[in-house]
Amino acid sequence: MTIKKSSWLNCFMNHESVPVIKPKQEKRFEPYNSQKSVKRISYTDLSSSMLPEELSISLAGSNLYVFTLAELKVITQSFSSSNFLGEGGFGPVHKGFIDDKLRPGLKAQPVAVKLLNIDGGQGHREWLTEVVFLGQLRHPHLVKLIGYCFEDEHRLLVYEYMPRGSLENQLFRRFSVSVPWSTRMKIALGAAKGLAFLHEAKQPVIYRDFKASNILLDSDYTAKLSDFGLAKDGPEGDDTHVSTRVMGTHGYAAPEYLMTGHLTAASDVYSFGVVLLELLTGRKSMDKTRSNREKNLVEWARPLLKVSRKLSKILDPRLEGQYSETGAQKAADLAYECLSHRPKARPTMSMIVDILTPLTEFNDMPVGTFVYTAPSPSPSPSRAPTEYKKSPISSPKNEMHKDDKKSINGHHHHHQHDRKHRRTKSPVISYETYLHSNLSTRTNSPE
Ligand SMILES: Nc1ncnc2c1ncn2[C@@H]1O[C@H](COP(=O)(O)OP(=O)(O)OP(=O)(O)O)[C@@H](O)[C@H]1O
Ligand SMILES: [Mg+2]
């Protein structure tokens, strides 16, 4: 038995007081376990060689369902390509449907099933980290882990299905609809609330992998953080930081973390600043197709954020001027502070939540109708030309690039499944039509 005694005692003695609270209403800074005396089981309490039975006992009470591989095959139609949602460093993700007969108490719903491509111990450790953190943390801005499968060499995760996929897909995918300004602010605020919750928990968590592909979007654009494989318990007692091997994604990691391996909540704040900059500019944090000066988004854009006449030039052209000027300047100032080279000068996530909250409501926007046209190789002659405008971007520079997602410690993630790059002959649709269309046909499904 390799699990530390304290966690075992916790498990057996506190079944009724499990460290999970599902907030009825969102309360920003109330840690999930504030009313419970029991400590959240941390990753270090568990042995990475623990057996499936040991894990399910350790996490008893966390409301996680344990599935068999056979069950997950059924719900994903044998991981069929028509259910393929995308692929990251961990492995492919497929959509599935759970019916209400699968488990008592588990309602019928669509799910996303992530399958670990076996790559030795590191993959299993990340899988276990994800199960341990997301199994115990519950918040409206964290994606819900429904359960897992741990069978022989198979490791899978079952999440609530997020109909609008990742922010990365929404912002940067070819043929994706431009995200309106107020929605961008809503996404930034939601993601900030997720991070604030982690940082302000009784046992704080540093997320470590904050980036556009890890922010998933619900049908109403509620942002939820996913991928806790790199998350770390925050420093305890008098410690100011956690020392780690540098892991993360190029373009998002804080400079001091890259240099020293010292991880603090302020490293997440820096990454948040990068994503805020991506939302403002519509550009990826690293874009090798751009000129040397513009490859690194932060280096290029940060100095321009403070100069109001330059700000309008770097804002996403796909917004077509439809943004609040006051809101844009405030969001730009905030991004500037988050991206400070001095970690102590950065705001905390709770300050960021306070600053962003009113920005979702500014309405000093130029009046105009927004109509989106997805580029189509052979335009239909029946289309009324006055109703549509050509999409401002459809150039190869918006394609995803494998190298952008390389792990910092040198190992390549085998990312972006080829299917992700396949072109779609998208029909012309208005933004309204898109919003009300059947979401299962969203852009990151294979065609
Ligand atoms: N719960 C979910 N609901 C809907 N789609 C999801 C869900 N989880 C993941 N996806 C989709 O699956 C794809 C792969 O996600 P995954 O988290 O494995 O990789 P990634 O975030 O792109 O890369 P990385 O491995 O660097 O985190 C993403 O494009 C995302 O849109
Ligand atoms: Mg991810």
Automatic annotation (TrEMBL):
Its EC number is 2.7.11.1. Its main location: membrane. Residues 408-425 have a biased composition (Basic residues). Residues 435-447 have a biased composition (Polar residues). It is found in: Cell membrane. Residues 79-360 form the Protein kinase domain. GO terms for cellular component: plasma membrane. Residues 398-407 have a biased composition (Basic and acidic residues). One of its GO terms (molecular function) is protein serine/threonine kinase activity. It is an enzyme of class 2 (transferase). PANTHER family: OS01G0588500 PROTEIN-RELATED (PTHR45621). This is non-specific serine/threonine protein kinase. It comes from Deinandra increscens subsp. villosa.
